[in-house]
Amino acid sequence: MLKFKKITQSKKTKARAGVITATHGEIKTPVFMPVGTLATVKAMTPEDLKSCGAQIILGNTYHLYLRPGTSVIKLFSGLHNFMNWDRPILTDSGGFQIFSLARLSKLTEEGYSFRSHIDGSLHMLTPEKSIQTQLVLNSDIMMCLDKCIGYPADKKDVEEAAELTKRWAKRSKQAWDAEDRKNALFGIVQGGMYNDLRIKSAESIIECNFPGYAIGGLSVGEPTELMTEVADYTLDMLPRDKPRYIMGVGTPNDLVRLIALGADMFDCVMPSRNARNGQLFTSAGKINISNAQYKHDKERLDEKCECYTCKNYSRAYLHHLYKTKEILAYNLNTIHNIFYYIILVKKIRNAIIEDKFEINRFLMPE
Amino acid sequence: MLKFKKITQSKKTKARAGVITATHGEIKTPVFMPVGTLATVKAMTPEDLKSCGAQIILGNTYHLYLRPGTSVIKLFSGLHNFMNWDRPILTDSGGFQIFSLARLSKLTEEGYSFRSHIDGSLHMLTPEKSIQTQLVLNSDIMMCLDKCIGYPADKKDVEEAAELTKRWAKRSKQAWDAEDRKNALFGIVQGGMYNDLRIKSAESIIECNFPGYAIGGLSVGEPTELMTEVADYTLDMLPRDKPRYIMGVGTPNDLVRLIALGADMFDCVMPSRNARNGQLFTSAGKINISNAQYKHDKERLDEKCECYTCKNYSRAYLHHLYKTKEILAYNLNTIHNIFYYIILVKKIRNAIIEDKFEINRFLMPE
User: Fold this and answer.
1) What does the CA dihedral A81, A85, A91, A94 come to, rounded to 10 degrees?
2) Model-level ipTM above the cut of 0.90
3) Domain-by-domain residue ranges, chain B?
4) Do B328 and A43 touch (CB under 8 A)?
5) Do the chains contact at A67 and B324, CB–CB below 8 Å?
6) Cβ–Cβ contacts within 10 Å for residue A200, how many?
7) At what angle do helices B252-260 and B224-237 cross, to 10 degrees?
8) What's the rounded Cα separation, in Å, for the pair A20 and A269?
9) How many interface pairs between A and B have CB atoms less than 8 angstroms apart?
10) What chain B residue is nearest to A41 in terms of C-alpha separation?
């Protein structure tokens, strides 16, 4: 059973530092979780992830359900053995990928009927099926199936989505209660960019008494200021003694600001995806390694960074690998960006514990 | 200055075990050299290479001359610092890639005039220019520019190519003699599949008294038996107190047979290229990891293998990564195949030293 212990409450901000105890180990919060969509964080070995300080990774239920499929994962008693990762794993419910990726066939009270983006085959995902699938994946933290909605959206649509999310949360909880609850289950607050709908949604989800709470439906196209504002008042509604997870967010600066508002957990494809596109995060700002200015640049990518890539390679070498599309480019770039995110959050945690956390000290030049 | 010390001469075969002392360290022979075309062995870090037991890698002068270009490599005083590899490097002359890859504009006594396969730009490669370029790369072992010829070929063409190779070898030697000779230079015997031409070529190259000798122009389309036959009589012509390198060969079984004939050094893209195509070498023969039969296969790729990939992952996981085109697939597959080649040659070396080397013990089922 998952436990959360709050260690420090920052006095200057709403930030907090804590420790989650999950089946596969402890997670010091705030924490950034690299995204391992298909049972691999793209271009990284588990050893690479550990060298970056990764404490927990995220797996995508939608993707893993389609490939390799639960029949394969079952053979390994879960994702950990299959992919050789022995630290905690969080899995999402599959709902967001159906929203963003699959061809949605039909949405009913029962669940999503959708067609695979791979081969067009027809599948059904219900709250109960999502739990069952995540139990096969055997993740430390499972998520309730929810209905995400884009931005902008009519209030009526947002309200209906939040209502459905509420009913699905109750069904998810029931399905989970029927199990041994070794795998934790988090509820998700929806409600779009509407304060009153977020309140209603939060109340209905908190009623289920989950071991942790997530805020969904952010970073779906809204301006950063609005995202921060919604996150702020929604975080305030969530219990203080449970982990608070903001899903699918964001830039390094988003993380700094959201931690200051009391968020504990984050996941985002940005560091890994941008790495593969040659965009690298440094203490001096973002750089695009494909730029000709780096061709003869003997310096480290980031002089302040202690990641494997920065300690061993130059900008000129990374530029060369990227321009020649060498596979090593994706590996080295991803190691750097993931390390950048994780070390940023780790430094913020240390600052919170010493009560020295100030947003401005951690913002990156934009 | 490069040194070669013969440790053991097998009594049952012509195989020998030795040690080459190069600027960046010792190389125990026989040795397999992974190919690092563009300042990276594709999909591997230097640490991966070391974990596979790589003692020396090969760089391709043609490719490196075009990208990143000598102006970049100069900044790092050579390839070693640029790519973070501190063990020996052998570079080829560039001639073979002009033969196989570039659009040849004109071949004259002076050298090759060719167009880049990247952007069509016009370049000139002479024996002297090849040495100068390899000196910038600062490889431990440089190769003379030669003229390779395909199979089948008219005897007259083969003879002309061997004659030109001879004259270029003398020019290469002169260019090298003008340097401090810290970087060793190997001569290359050509002569196609003709015994008398191989004799003539070998004699003319040996006359230059190089620190080592290579056999070029093999594995260019001829049957394996013919390749082995030509290698056999050509190896017999080469000095016993110098390393003998067979260029661009071959399958694991080719290596076993050629070591038995007295060859010391090999390079081949086969283990790395085939890995990226899903073809993996195992003690039970070659397998294609994309085959559906591996989808639910919990076993190691090769039960007898101690590589990182085999120790940590299953066939089912490798199958999944390969089918989903995950970058990690190329990394894990390459580690296995490179390890397979290197450990094979290492085991043969140990058997030679114990005078227990027999070809049949080391052949892979075909």
Assistant:
1) -70
2) yes
3) 3-268, 276-333
4) yes
5) yes
6) 18
7) 30
8) 22
9) 100
10) B328
What's this model's pTM, rounded to 2 decimal places? Answer: 0.98
Which pair of structure tokens corresponds to residue B279? Answer: 């073809």
Beta carbons of B40 and A326 less than 8 angstroms apart: yes
In CATH terms, is domain A3-269 a member of 3.20.20.105?
A: yes
Among chain B, residues having any CB pair with chain A shorter than 8 Å are: 38-40, 42-46, 67-68, 71-72, 75-76, 82-84, 295-296, 298, 312-314, 316-317, 319-321, 323-324, 326-328, 330-332
Q: What is the pLDDT of residues A106-132, one digit of tens each?
A: 999 999 999 999 999 999 999 999 999
pLDDT tens by residue, B207-227: 999 999 999 999 999 999 999
CA distances from A60 to A52, A139, A179, A330, B262 (A): 21, 11, 21, 21, 54
d(CA B39, CA B54): 15
Q: HEC profile for A3-70?
A: EEEEEEECCCCCCEEEEEEECCEEEEECEEECECCCCCCCCCCHHHHHHCCCCCEEECHHHHHHCCCH
For the domain made up of B3-268, give the CATH fold: TIM Barrel (3.20.20)
10 Å Cβ neighbour count for B242?
21
CB contact under 8 A, A68 and B328: no
Quote the CA–CA distance of B29 and B6 in Å, as a whole number: 9
CB contact under 8 A, B320 and A76: no
B42 and A323 in contact by Cβ < 8 A? Answer: no
Chain centroid to Cα B194, Å, comes to: 23
**Amino acid symbol at B31:** V
Tell which of B64, B328, B331 to mutate to test the A interface (max A CBs under 10 Å). B328
